[in-house]
Amino acid sequence: MYLALYRKYRSVNFDDVCGQTHVTSTLKYEVEHGMISHAYLFSGPRGTGKTSCAKILSRAVNCEHPVNGNPCNVCPSCRSILAGSAVDVVEMDAASNNGVDNIRDIRDEVIYTPAELRYRVYIVDEVHMLSASAFNALLKTLEEPPAHVIFILATTELYKLPETVISRCQRFDFHRLTVPVISERLKKIVEAEGLTATRGALDELARISNGGMRDAISNLELCAGRHTEINEALVSDVFGKLGYEQVAAAARAVSTKDYDAVFSIINELSAAGRDIGVFWDELSSFYRDMLIMKTTKSPDRYLDISETSMETLKKTASLFSVADLLYQCRLIDDAAADIAKKTGSKRLSAELALVRMCDPSLSLEPDALLSRMAQLEDRLALLSAGKAPAQPVQLEQTAEEKNSMPENSYPSNNKKDGASVQVGKDGQPKAAVNTGAEPEPQAPKAREPIPYFSDLISRAAERNSFIEGFRQFISGWRVPGGFLIECDNPFTAKVCTDNKPMLTELFTIFEGRLVSEDEITITVKSGGGHHTPVSLDTF
Q: Per-residue pLDDT tens for 141-182?
């Protein structure tokens, strides 16, 4: 008979349980030193190892030859429990046995000594489903059970349990598993099953499992049913989700007001028959990640994504201000409610929200006004120093301008001292332009100072105070093809290189256009006037 992967690869000892060391280390210590409690309470999200730990603990306390707190899984006691034939280990689902009569049966049974094992163990899963009368019937037995009885209660909704029950148990809280932990476990299963999967696909499966190992293994099994390599495209096709990079592309389209790209994304989702609600949840999660990236000093503490996704997130978040993200997050949240309750017009709700996200001027909501004010403040920061970008100078008149000259201005071939004189209808000269050798257009300068660079560095120091101590060693130049940041020493160049994404964002603000990191070169000033480009590999 075929066995599901999550059952086939269920942990058989405490060391196999992934990501719950704070629980398993304590349980191993108690078993090894004979400090067994009369009642345990395991709480946490689904698929994080509660039932597995309960089964392992039931074997460990009855094992004839435990190994460092782990069950040996080879002695008769362990084998009978693994086979499910041990009458002294009772597993009960409180969802279907939640009445007071079921608890009374347990209360009447506990007075008898175990038939075969050392302890009689009662594993009550989803214990929060018990009725109020059933909890009351359990209280006294749970508080003072016979010495040969152990209760192990498991729940996903701790808040539904009475405080009187919680206080009578030794409580362990199971945490959601991180993406690297789940991905590594999936990799071992893939190798054991002889499957082929890319690392990106395993990371994506781990991400969509929302911290649950059982969900991740079940999703892996579903993808394996296609009998082909498990990659990001296959995961996207099976679960109707876009990849992290594709969601980032949608956010970049919003930042550049690329309406064609915005409508194209929704059109492709509809044409492929994918649920727009799923896409909206992904977009909402991505904006939450960007908000964390922009507002916290240590985003790694709050983001559970792979290194590749982290780089994508950094680049995309640099295109938005905090005010923009707050405004757009509010629109996403409002649209999510409409998309969830509508069936036929989800597409329209998503498109309307994305168009509003592209242009805050279409809304008079406070968040939209704050976003627009933030953009104005960035422009004023540039203008306050009197350093607005110069307008291009028109050196020659176009044909249309010549045809549209006022009637009182006529060109003339009259020359005086090498000058061409322009006269009106009254014959009086109006202007004099030297008609000698035409001036050659000036060649662009090799480099020139950036007028607003001091203000830019001040803004950078406000975001990262560490830069303040190095500003005297930094100068900025405008060069053909971009910008040059010149540093007096290699360490200052290292500081600038580490903060290059932030400097790129500030250049975008002061220039009033999108500036890429490739346009910015960071160099170390040398004595001979040459510049040494800086690479992270140098340090």
A: 888 888 999 999 999 999 999 999 999 999 999 999 988 899
Answer whether 420's CB lies under 8 Å from 404's CB: no
Determine what percent of the chain is predicted with pLDDT higher than 70.
Answer: 81
- Residue 22, helix vs strand vs coil: helix
- Nearest CA-CA partner of 502 in 371, 358, 317: 317
Q: 179-239, which class in CATH? A: mainly alpha
Residues in contact with 231: Cβ distance below 8 Å, sequence separation at least 6, in sequence order? 197, 198, 200, 201
Residue in the structure block whose two tokens are 């009725």: 131
Please give the pLDDT value at position 374: 67
User: CA 211, CA 175: separation in Å to the nearest integer?
Assistant: 8
Encoding tokens for residue 242?
């876009």
CATH 3.60.20.10 is right for the domain spanning 5-173: no
Q: What is the rounded distance in angstroms from the CA atom of residue 341 to the CA atom of residue 249?
A: 27
Domain spans of the chain?
A: 5-173, 179-239, 244-373, 448-538
Residue-wise over 271-309: b if at least 16 C-beta within 10 A, else e? eeebebbebbbbbbebbebbbbbbeeeebeeebbbbeeb
| The pTM of the whole model exceeds 0.85 | no
Bridge partners, residue 531, by sequence: 525
pLDDT in tens, 495-506: 899 889 889 888
What phi-psi label fits residue 362: left (phi over 0), alpha (psi between -120 and 50 degrees) or beta? alpha
Rounded to the nearest angstrom, the gap between the alpha carbon of residue 462 and the centroid of all alpha carbons in its chain is 25
Alpha carbon distance 277, 137 (integer Å): 45
Fold of 244-373: Zinc Finger, Delta Prime; domain 3 (1.20.272)
